[in-house]
Amino acid sequence: MGSFSIWHWLIVLVIVMLVFGTKKLRNIGQDLGGAVKGFKDGMKTAEEPKEQIQQSSAAADKTVDVHAKDVNK
Fold first, then answer.
1. 52 alpha carbon, distance to own chain's centre
2. Which pLDDT tens digit goes with each residue over 5-59?
3. What is the DSSP letter of 3?
C-alpha cells in the first residue's frame, strides 16, 4: 500500500505533462543541467589555485638570488 506501481507513476507523468507542457519541462531540464555544469566548472576552478600555489612555492624554492654588476660604468 505504501509503494506505487509503474502505472501510478505513468499517470502522474501524464498529468504533469498536461499541466506544464513538454516545452516548459524541457526548459526546466536544460536550466537544471546548465546549473549542474556550472557548479562542476566552479568546483574545478576552485581547485586550480591550490595547485598553482603549490607549484609557485615549489618554483620559489629553486630561485637563486643574483646581484648584477653594471659593466658600462
1. 19
2. 899 999 998 998 888 888 888 888 899 999 999 988 888 876 655 555 555 555 5
3. S
pTM of the full structure:
0.42
Q: Which three cell numbers stand for residue 45?
A: 576552478
Residue bearing cell 660604468: 73
Q: CA-CA distance, 39 to 32, in Å (whole number)? A: 11
The three three-digit cell numbers of residue 11, written as one number:
499517470
Phi, psi of 68 (to 5 degrees): -90, 140
Which cell is 25 given? Answer: 519541462
**Torsion region of 21: left, alpha or beta (phi above 0 gives left; psi -120 to 50 gives alpha):** left
